[in-house]
Design brief:
It is built from ten helices and no strands. Helix 4 packs antiparallel against helix 10. It has one domain. The protein has 233 residues and is mainly α.
Length: 233
């Protein structure tokens, strides 16, 4: 049984966006540090914090998806330039995650724990937006991916269908973040440090390929525009 065109387009765009967002956010790797940030806290408080972090992260992703391209366009930045820049940012971030996962973990730990102040905060909910949602969960790399995705609508797909699919992927990602953070201690116990780093490196490899693909689409766009201008001349 074939899917309706609109549903098929939405599913296709979801399949494009979700792996990219999952790879850059890497909730399994982040759960190691989230577990440290909430160590010794009441179970109900941890679950509520995970939910708020996920909602804040979703808000950041949706704003980046729906308005990121428009904001950059307001400053005269073309979609192809955005794709090349976003591809470079994503690829470089993935390369660092792939070769030096310990460095990436240390940076995220510094963002989340803020030199130990996060753990000693009387009300952990005060940290639900900063630093746990941004920049720990959704940082510059994730925002770059979201904006790059919003500017990468396939040629034969309606823009509305594509944006619905990408937004659905962001929503799914937020649900994953909420669940994984809420059960961070169990995830850490199940995977361990070594297992989490293996997953992180696999995610980094996928992310590197996505970054190269975004970069290639930007270069292709510039070449197509140059050919059209040459023919017109």
């Amino acid at each position: 049984m074939s899917l309706a065109p609109g549903l098929g387009n939405t599913l296709s765009s979801w399949l494009i966006a979700f792996p990219a967002l999952f790879s850059i956010i890497n909730p399994l790797g982040a759960s190691l540090i989230f577990a440290q940030a909430t160590e010794g806290r009441d179970r109900r408080e941890v679950v509520e914090l995970a939910r708020q972090v996920a909602l804040n992260s979703l808000g950041i992703m949706l704003v980046s998806i729906w308005f990121g391209s428009w904001i950059l366009g307001f400053f005269g930045i073309s979609i192809n330039a955005l794709r090349i820049t976003g591809g470079l940012v994503v690829a470089s971030r993935a390369w660092l995650m792939l070769l030096q996962p310990e460095t990436s973990e240390a940076r995220k730990e510094k963002q989340a724990l803020q030199g130990g102040r996060t753990v000693t905060t009387p009300d952990l909910r005060e940290t639900a937006f900063f630093p746990l949602a941004m920049p720990f969960t959704v940082g510059p790399g994730s925002i770059s991916v979201a904006i790059a995705l919003s500017s990468s609508t396939p040629p034969n797909m309606p823009t509305a269908d594509y944006y619905v699919g990408v937004s659905a992927a962001a929503t799914t990602m937020a649900v994953v973040v909420a669940v994984v953070y809420a059960y961070a201690e169990r995830v850490v116990a199940m995977l361990g440090v070594t297992g989490t780093r293996i997953v992180s490196r696999l995610a980094a490899l996928i992310l590197l390929a996505i970054g190269v693909q975004i970069l290639a689409s930007g270069v292709e766009g510039f070449l197509v525009e140059a050919l059209k201008q040459a023919k017109a001349a």
